[in-house]
Amino acid sequence: MPAPLPPRALLLLALLAASPLPARAEEEAAPATATAPCAVEPGGSETEAATPDAWQRLSRHGAWKVAGFTFSFSVISFASDWDRESSDWARENQPLGRLSEVGSQAPTYVLAGSALTLGGLSLWDREARRPGHRRALESFVVSQLINAGLTDLLKVSVGRPRPDSGHRSSFPSGHTSSAAAWATLLWRRYGWRAGLPATLLTLLVGASRIQDGRHYLSDVLAGAVLGVSVTYVVDELFGP
């Protein structure tokens, strides 16, 4: 009979599944007749006050609380026996079955497919929509490159052995971070119809990495936080 999943590991998985991806902050539309606030200079001339920039929007967004909360749990898990318990349970019971093969291979195909799709839309979609698709493609490429670089840097710096081989490249999960970055971009740019399936696939990717013995639970949690955070910052800076 399969052994029950450790309650603490189950709690962490539930928190990861329930954590929302950051949605694009809604900008308040100014009335058509409203004028920008003015500042009077010493000489008597007026200049328009500067509008809040992207960094100010970032500092106010509640997504950082979610990311910090999730990352705190990944650190706690990293420093305790939760990782070993969840990894052992998943490798013994194989809850995903053959779906783990899908999760393991998915990032390569979805990233390549998304790049081609966004490139095609930026060239051949309706003219009014092309600039938005181009910005989405630029944000996608830049966020994936930064995410990959930070992931590799952490892997080398931390040097955590993998559960199945001992190779020191376990923390964080690169598959999960790239999938989470991809899902975040789709959620922000194209709404829940694209973001929700991408989020479910990201959860499958993370769970498959644990089941296959490639990563611990904290590796997956940290990878998800990294991918979401990097893409959120990059996409906010690129603008709508």
Average pLDDT confidence is 77
Secondary-structure element sequence?
HEEHHHHHHHH
The end-to-end span amounts to 52 Å
How many beta-strand segments? 2
Instruction: Characterize the main sheet.
Output: 2 strands, antiparallel
- Report the principal-axis shape: globular
Structural class: mainly alpha
Total helical segments: 9
Strand order of the largest sheet: 1-2
Rounded to the nearest angstrom, the radius of gyration is 21 Å
What does this structure look like?
Helices cover 67% and strands 2% of the residues. The chain has 240 residues and is mainly α. Strand 1 and strand 2 (46-48) form a beta hairpin. The chain is globular.
Observed structural traits:
two-stranded antiparallel sheet, 240 residues, globular, mainly alpha, single chain
Q: How are the SSEs ordered, and which strands pair?
A:
Elements: H1 7-18, E1 38-40, E2 46-48, H2 54-60, H3 63-78, H4 82-93, H5 99-124, H6 130-158, H7 174-190, H8 192-211, H9 217-238
Antiparallel strand pairs: 1-2
Helix pairs in contact: 3-9, 5-6, 5-7, 5-8, 6-7, 6-9, 7-8, 7-9, 8-9
Short recap of the structure:
This protein is mostly helical. It has helices at residues 7-18, 54-60, 63-78, 82-93, 99-124, 130-158, 174-190, 192-211, 217-238; strands spanning 38-40, 46-48.
